[in-house]
Amino acid sequence: MFIKKVKGNTFLVETSFQSIPFYKLEGGKIIMVDCGLIEEREGILNLFSMEGLKPAAVLATHAHVDHIGNAAYFQKEFGARIIMNEVEAAVANSIRGLKTTYSTLAATDIMKHFGNMVVEADEKIGMHEDHVEVLGADFRIIAVPGHSPGHIAVLTPDNVACIGDTLASCDVLGSSRMMYSFSISKDLESKRSLMDLDADKFVLSHKGAFDEIRSIIPANIKYFEDSADEVLSLIETPVGFEELLDRVIRHKGTKVASLYKYNRMERMTRPLLEFLIDTGRLRCEIVDNRLYYVK
Asked: In whole angstroms, what separates CA 57 from the centre of its chain?
């Protein structure tokens, strides 16, 4: 884990799992764009301590566990202001809100696995706002929904675009068996929209800082299109969700030995089915009180 300069006062914390950007103010205060997993908190805090840095604000791209996992902690321990898109803030402010994301889990299981995500935002960004001032620094906001309902990209005052999970590097795409998107149809629209984004540098949460992103956008789009085709190839005759999910798990060679891993595979598979329905390649039928997916 280390800190890397991107441009001007924009830096990133490079962990084994992700890149976490931050903008440095005077006196060692920093504005973080996302704040990482709880499992990486100790390493992040050690880095900040060595460099004399203090989280003064967290500007979240979206409300997923690797992006706001430490938000409540930084809010409590450092007084950091938490700033989120209004939709993402509604998801993160309670276990009931998180249930909209983890809909098939009981509240007790959500608390067990994701309770550290619960945080009340100090400031909420409206869906149509295009900038936000944080501790005197102006950040541009670009709506890129799809990976999550209210996902945003954040441009620091150095014109560094922090893309969050809208795009992944080609290395990450190549090593990932499956990736999640809340609405793939909308996500692909947002990915295409980034072709016109003018920035000096780009930071992808997964992973790294880049001079340009136009060359990797097609690969990101193709990844989800290919993933959907893969699932479609597993459907020859009408099939129910549980049977299809079992086929997907076996096809991917994934071992599912916990409720958390089962939920993860389920959450990644359903959007692919919805994308296939959206694009007219799949439909749902009810037969004898059971739902089947049919080509």
From this structure: 19
User: Are 206 and 239 in a shared domain?
Assistant: no
How many CA within 13 A on the CB side of residue 249?
16
Output the six-digit token pair for 185: 């149809």
Asked if residues 71 and 60 have their Cβ atoms less than 8 Å apart, the reply is yes
* 36, 66 Cβ separation under 8 angstroms: yes
**Within a domain: residue 239?**
yes
pLDDT in tens, 224-257: 999 999 999 999 999 999 999 999 999 999 889 8
Helix (H, G, I), strand (E, B) or coil at 135: coil
**What is the residue-wise DSSP string for 246-272?**
HHHHHHHT----SHHHHHHHHHHHHHH
As beta bridge partners, residue 265 has: none
- The CA-atom distances, in angstroms, between 134 and each of 75, 84, 232 are 15, 12, 45
CB atoms near residue 255 (< 10 Å): 8
Same domain, 19 and 111: yes
The two three-digit tokens of residue 194, written as one number: 């980034």
- For residue 21, the cross-strand partners are 12
Q: Is residue 228 part of a domain?
A: no
Interior/surface letters 274-292, b for 16+ CB within 10 angstroms, e for the rest: bbbeeeeebeeeeeeeeeb
φ/ψ bin of 73: left (φ > 0), alpha (ψ from -120 to 50), beta (otherwise): alpha
- pTM here? 0.94
pLDDT tens for each residue of 267-284: 999 999 999 999 999 999
Count: domains in the chain = 2
